[in-house]
Amino acid sequence: MSASGTAAKPKRISALISDVDGTLVTHDKVLTDRTRQAVQALQARGLGFAIVSARPPEGMRMFVEPLKLASPIAGFNGGAYVKPDLTLIEDRTLDPEVARRTLGLLETQGVDAWLFSEGRWFVRNPNGPKIAREEHTVQFAPTVVPEFGTALDKAHKLVGVSEDYDLLARCEAEAQAMLGAAASAARSQPYYLDVTHPEANKGTAVRRLARLMGVPLEEVAVIGDGRNDIAMFAQCPFSIAMGNASDEVKAKARYVTASNEEDGLAQAIERYLLSAGAESAA
To answer: Signal peptide position in this chain (predicted)?
Structure first.
């Protein structure tokens, strides 16, 4: 349904850019048959399809074959753009001093820190929160180190991880105030605070993906469920929030679909992009 409760006929849409966790996959990180078939039907109609996520590019390789991805993939919220074979197109890393200031803030607040640098995931506490879940999600294991050291010099992403959601919300606000325009700091999940290059945010990412795909931004539809997806909603008039999104996120989207446990992405594709009334690139 639309945010107002009624479905309006969409304008011409030439591509769909989708978030991954909470959108493309279920809570258990399953890509369902209905979603896979909907994406393939979208592509058969002549529309482009791309994914953008806070995940590292290596953590999205499992979608390339089942979705027949042909468009670039944006990892780290736009901190790295790769081809479907994971060949790097371009990337953006944090300023080393900004990375160290961020780490200092997380340490001061007692928040576990992860570092993604040069294709590797570094942790200092192998028993820290959410490590097992993240390993299941990205399908590779972290490298345990006593200190991050020089890996901070080429940081694609620092992540603050905590089961205390209120604490992490305060850390988000403090990181934004402390870092200002020097970095992008936003929670991708209530338990993950992602700090990346200032141009590594989903608003910038959707613009860059549109250019890489050769599609006018006004002909791009976007779909997501998280607070960090609001930035791409702001770039595209055709925005869709998942049913599992918070009310804050839903309020920023033009349409709201079903949850990721109900094939909400597939339902959105079927209703808004493949229906007889929808004008596409075909």
So the answer is: none
Cβ partners under 8 Å of residue 99, min gap 6 = 152, 153, 155, 158, 195
* Same domain membership, residue 212 and residue 191: no
Q: Choose one of 166, 196, 226: the last residue of a domain.
A: 196
21 is in which domain, residue-wise?
A: 15-91+201-273
What's the CA dihedral at 171, 176, 179, 185 to 10 degrees?
80
Tell me 2's DSSP state. B
Strand runs labelled E in the chain: 15-18, 48-51, 73-75, 80-82, 88-91, 112-117, 120-123, 143-144, 155-161, 184-189, 192-196, 220-224, 238-241, 255-256
Angle 136-137-141 from CA coordinates, rounded to 5°: 55
Each residue's pLDDT tens digit, 239-265:
999 999 999 999 999 999 999 999 999
Query: Domain holding 231: CATH number?
Result: 3.40.50.1000
Whether the per-residue pLDDT at 7 is higher than 60: the answer is no
pTM of the predicted model as reported, rounded to 2 decimal places: 0.90
